[in-house]
Amino acid sequence: MNLTELNRIAAAMVVPGKGILAADESSGTIKKRFDAIGVESTETNRRDYREMLFRSKEAMSQYISGVILYDETIWQNVADGTPLVKLIEQSGAIPGIKVDEGTQALPMCPGELVTVGLDKLAERLKKYYERGARFAKWRAVIDIGSGIPSMTAISVNAHALARYAALCQAAQIVPIVEPEVLMDGDHDIDRCYEVTQRVLSKTFQELRVQRVALEGMVLKPNMAISGKKCARQASVEEVAEKTVRLLKTCVPAAVPGIAFLSGGQSDEEATAHLNAMHKLGPLPWGLTFSYGRALQAAPQKAWSGKAENVAAGQTAFSHRARMNGLASKGEWQS
Ligand code: 13P
Q: According to its UniProt record, in which pathway does this protein act (predicted)?
């Protein structure tokens, strides 16, 4: 393992002014997104859509540091035979790959999930590296509800995240460690804070036990935020203040960067929250976005599967990327 190189890539992923485009929706998830805009989820449509994003010159060269791909996408070529992954490299961004294989029900823990995909991961990482991937992603999902999460769910998911991260570093790939605490319930921001604190603490404990080099990873957490169905929605300032406090208590300064998921926040909220956190600096790590929905909802709508809308889709994507790029420096204005 070359830790200097892993650290260089991790730092480039969270460089101020740029963030990560999470375009790694599984075939099931992208079908849901396409259904919403009335587009059939064929392999060609999925490719054309992602080609539109990766050819967005302004967004990709100025505001996007890296792109997380799904397995299908990393092997796809555009009509002229160029691999999609080459379009990303040519724009100056770093290609990455989602390597978990989704979630399964966790035995003995009703309603809870464990992320799977460790079998043969070392072999898969080798092939992804050869194809150009320099970072990877693994997402664990923790739900908040009555009596959950259990310590069992937190513990097995943290263990798997650390196993994945160690395998990535051994394969010279920077792991994005993503323990997502969902914002779907009616819990308040303080409950989210408390659960996320337990999850992050356990995750970093496992990373240490399994000898993962913190200098060669990126953390992708949720923000401390009110559940979507909570009657009291915390303000932008409260989300920013509590999230920064939480991360300072749990994330060692050796970690080069933190890149948030958007998790169901509106486009503008996701931008406003990140921006407000930068008003609370200085921060010990790079702090930016790794958004899926908050970067893609607008371009998906503008594109709607029509070739004549490609330019409109790219304009919408570039706008969101620029807004989040500004927010990653605390320079966004509503
Ligand atoms: P969202 O920003 O849509 O939550 O997606 C980010 C992601 O990659 C989740 O794993």
A: Carbohydrate degradation; glycolysis; D-glyceraldehyde 3-phosphate and glycerone phosphate from D-glucose: step 4/4
